[in-house]
Amino acid sequence: MIPTTTHRGVVYARNGVAASSQPLAVSAALEILQAGGSAIDAGIAASAVLAVNEPGASHLGGDAFLIVHEAKTRTNTALNGSGEAPHRAAADQFPNGIDIHGYRAATVPGLVSTWFAAHEKYGKLPIPQLLARAISYAENGVAINARFARAVVAHKAAFPATKVFETMGISDSLSGGDVVIQKDLAWSLKQIAADGWAAFYEGEIAEKITAGTDGWFSAEDLKNHRTRILDPLSIKYRDLVIHGQPPPSQGMIFLEGLKLAEGFDLAKLTTAQLTHILVEAKKIGYADRYDILADPEVVDVAVDSIFANSHISKRRAEIDLTKANNNLTKPLPEGSDTTYFLVADADGNAVSWIQSVFHSFGSSFAVPGTGIVLNNRLTGFSLDPTSVNFIAPGKRPAHTLNAWIATNPDGSLKYVGGTPGGNIQVQSNLQLVVNLVDLGMNVQQACEAPRWQHLTTPGNPNIEEDYFGVLEIENRFDEQTLTELQALGHTVKALPAYGHGSAVQLLEVLPNGSYAVGSDPRVDGQAAGY
């Protein structure tokens, strides 16, 4: 059995809740909810605070993906805030591979656009009020937590030539509790509060982005960007409907994994058998992703064919219960620095929100005079001209960001969940839903339950595990489970007890309408409500 001992209790509330890996983001969200704001209003406030207080994971120069549940109409909407490759981003610009760092690694930032697209549709309070807390933290200073300090110190140690912290106006030698002031970022947030969407994509910030990147971004690249508002991908799993991110997000892997898993009576399996099936389903999902996932506005992404019963039946039959299939694994770029949070309001509306700069501090480049750290999401493209995900100007790369919502058969809200973690996200979300639905865990138990992550690591081709992948699994799983997984052919590597690379936040709506919320102790965030 998977251990279900918890360090934190479930948080229960009636009027509104928020959960995040950053406590000050939760406080900002609750402040807006108590002022009469909607779930989206509170989400914008939390999002902006995270850019100030967790800049290594997400920033104004990054992207955001949302799933929104509207209680009155029982509808669910996906907002895709991913940016396009700029006009100069062609394959011939990268003869030695796409740069990991520097502004040439960045796509057009989509986060700020997503604030305004979501606010136009669901907002109640004015944008200046929503950004006030973030502006105050940037302008007057914030006492940073240890994760902020560790991220800065680790990034500087790994990349000593970086100038990102100098350009941001912060020290590269920090400790928890230090006060950090970001005057340039405060200026940018004030511009956005005063002049809205245009401040970032057409105004002074846009001009600084264009000038600061030597024209890598043109004025047209920025002003032509828009957040896409879409129907989510939706599948039935057991008695629920799970709503996930449509392409170019790889949320399809999460949903395909659930469809594959639904053919097994998971609750009756041993922990090793259950883990084996989910790992094999993950491998299949990634194999299918390689074949079809790209920008759906440029190529036809045939998700319906992947979700078709005939395809699922064929793929499910490929899961050998007696051994691991090590021929499906291919290396993937592993971005890991992302932040996820959720908010629900007194009217029953909720948002599942994830935002990112991809790698730690993204491109390791801050636009001079703005305090804005750019993403390095361009590295999500392929340089293989036969790939559907081949780089091209104006095209969006295949994207790791995904978030999800689950509804009851009548369309009412049941669960909201997600996690950061790059390619770990879809694997973690698969385990979360199984823990909740099949194993009957409450939200806090599901947050804290031990997890696995199957990684593919580009490296020495002569080392077998680099090709086949490594199944990293927290050592709170019993020794017998690890031994059985090895016997099935998995290359098993034990992680520390809470060493998995995720930071889960979960919400359940109880039958009486109360919210139950959980938060992952692997990070220093929290769940709270009122």
TrEMBL record:
Transmembrane segments: none annotated. Gene3D superfamilies: 1.10.246.130, 3.60.20.40. Pfam families: G_glu_transpept (PF01019). This is Unannotated protein. It comes from freshwater metagenome.
